[in-house]
């Protein structure tokens, strides 16, 4: 291979990049990249039908494989099998069930889904932690030992299917609210605490020979404070974080991949310069780079600004992934993808993670006297969960009304007399919460305000969203269910089974150090 071809092996591109350079046949002749991102979501196309985002369909994926000069390392955040029926997300359920078999099977079904679509490498799992209530990505625990024990099994489950796993987002999300998709994030822990938490979990993942680590656009100023004007280097650009800490001090021997290079968290205005700096800092694979960056990397290697050893290190680490995946495909050391197993496993994990967080007045299970229920939808985003809940109650001969806006029935959302009237009209009111934040001033989230005026002896909170809601927004409520899963027809059925005592809630709080609720 030429020097340029070796450099392009470190590039993981999107279909947008391919189509902006002539389409698959032309692109791969001119740019023999090593990796391709496969994203399943609604695809953005221009008026000629060309993909304009990161997503592509399965047929186009195979066209790219056909024209590529290299055996592409195809990566994805997730995939769905062709005949899979159950659409449930369960990662937070793992922290609530704390069941190692569940964790392994979660990894196994991820691997099966990847193999079904011909994907070699999954950009997960996320091993971040719950420390900041404004965190925008779900984490399964605030305890590094729980995180480590669960995700070691997830990684093993994925890689037993011959799929390369990735642990992310190094140096770790969960201590600071800024979303690195939008602006540079930060991990604010002192370094000794970081080593006891995030450092510990990453070292545990390396014991499972995880193939990849994703760095992200987050700083760790307790380790690398060589910034200017209050700006600290994000891991994407920091050789201290990527090379010294991750590769040397923690001993990671696999391939380091950046988070998507188009994110706002690393946006300096010079896309090529950003990619060159990420490579120089120690990234072995660049995710969503412009292919023009290869020319600048080649120039800097030739003039000595980037040592050849940096490229050799990257290629050696990428080769480990290629060998791992190649051996799995050659020796068929994985299970045949099984959509029924995937569906069954997702539902089992969802069930095990449902948590009756509080039942302090013995409201649950409901007795036969509860015949009229109001479901108040405390969310802006969710259009289906309350309807599913109403449908399930009415199958059991319990009348259920749904209200997304209390002003439909009462004058204002916050007056105690309105809540008292509602208490008289219904045997039970369920405040149905499916959101990650409640800080915006919206009608739906104002219903959290209203909920505090309601008779707690007739009140049940069901939460599908942020695990912080229990202590941050409903600290005084004695009856509270943490679902830890997506509301679907199947999971809502299990919820009602639990409310009526036909199923036992076995999940635990994802917080091992959860604050006791406030007694008012």
Question: For the record, what is the CATH homologous superfamily label of the largest domain?
Answer: Glycoside hydrolase, family 3, N-terminal domain
* Total count of helical runs of at least 4 residues: 18
Taken together, the total number of domains comes to: 2
- Give the overall form: elongated
Are there runs of 5+ residues with pLDDT below 50, and where? Answer: 515-520
- Kindly report the CATH topology of the largest domain: TIM Barrel
Give the end-to-end Cα distance, rounded to a whole number of Å. Answer: 71 Å
State the helical fraction: 25-40%
CATH architecture of the largest domain: Alpha-Beta Barrel
Proportion of strand residues: 5-15%
Q: Describe the largest sheet.
A: 6 strands, mixed
Mean pLDDT: 90
Query: How would you write the strand order of the largest sheet?
Result: 11-16-15-14-12-13
User: Pairing-aware structural class of the strands and helices?
Assistant: alpha/beta
């Amino acid at each position: 291979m030429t020097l340029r071809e070796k450099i392009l092996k470190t590039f993981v591109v999107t279909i947008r990049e391919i189509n902006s350079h002539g389409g698959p046949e032309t692109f791969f002749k001119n740019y023999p990249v090593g990796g391709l991102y496969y994203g399943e979501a609604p695809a953005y196309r221009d008026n000629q039908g060309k993909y304009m985002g990161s997503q592509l369909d399965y047929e186009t994926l195979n066209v790219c494989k056909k024209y590529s000069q290299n055996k592409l390392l195809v990566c994805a955040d997730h995939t769905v099998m062709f005949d899979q029926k159950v659409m449930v997300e369960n990662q937070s359920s793992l922290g609530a069930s704390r069941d190692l078999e569940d964790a392994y099977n979660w990894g196994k079904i991820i691997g099966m889904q990847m193999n079904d679509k011909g994907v070699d490498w999954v950009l997960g799992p996320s091993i971040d932690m719950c420390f900041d209530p404004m965190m925008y990505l779900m984490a399964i625990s605030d305890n590094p030992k729980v995180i480590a024990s669960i995700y070691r099994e997830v990684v093993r489950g994925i890689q037993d299917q011959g799929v390369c796993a990735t642990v992310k987002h190094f140096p770790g999300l969960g201590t600071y609210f800024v979303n690195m998709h939008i602006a540079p994030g930060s991990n604010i822990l002192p370094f000794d605490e970081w080593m006891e938490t995030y450092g510990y979990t990453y070292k545990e993942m390396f014991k499972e020979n995880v193939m990849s680590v994703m760095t992200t656009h987050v700083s760790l100023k307790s380790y690398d404070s060589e910034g200017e004007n209050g700006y600290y280097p994000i891991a994407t650009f920091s050789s201290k974080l990527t090379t010294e800490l991750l590769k040397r001090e923690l001993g990671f021997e696999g391939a380091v991949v950046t988070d998507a290079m188009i994110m706002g968290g690393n946006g300096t205005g010079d896309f090529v310069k950003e990619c060159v700096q990420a490579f120089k800092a120690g990234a072995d694979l660049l995710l969503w780079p412009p292919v023009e960056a290869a020319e600048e990397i080649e120039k800097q290697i030739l003039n000595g600004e980037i040592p050849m050893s940096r490229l050799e290190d990257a290629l050696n680490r990428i080769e480990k992934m290629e060998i791992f995946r190649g051996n799995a495909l050659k020796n068929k050391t994985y299970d045949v993808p099984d959509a029924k197993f995937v569906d069954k496993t997702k539902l089992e994990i969802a069930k095990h993670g449902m948590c009756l967080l509080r039942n302090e007045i013995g409201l649950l299970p409901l007795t036969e006297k509860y015949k009229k229920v109001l479901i108040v939808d405390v969310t802006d985003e969710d259009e289906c969960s309350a309807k599913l809940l109403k449908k399930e109650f009415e199958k059991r001969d319990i009348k259920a009304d749904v209200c997304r806006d209390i002003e439909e029935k009462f004058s204002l959302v916050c007056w105690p007399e309105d809540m008292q009237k509602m208490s008289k009209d219904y045997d039970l009111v369920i405040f149905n919460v499916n959101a990650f934040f409640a800080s915006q001033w919206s009608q739906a989230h104002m219903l959290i305000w209203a909920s505090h005026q309601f008779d707690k002896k007739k009140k049940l909170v069901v939460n599908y969203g942020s695990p912080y809601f229990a202590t941050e927004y409903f600290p005084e409520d004695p009856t509270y269910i943490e679902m830890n899963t997506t509301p679907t027809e199947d999971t809502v059925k299990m919820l009602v089974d639990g409310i009526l005592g036909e199923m036992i809630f076995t999940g635990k709080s994802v917080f091992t150090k959860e604050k006791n609720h406030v007694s008012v």
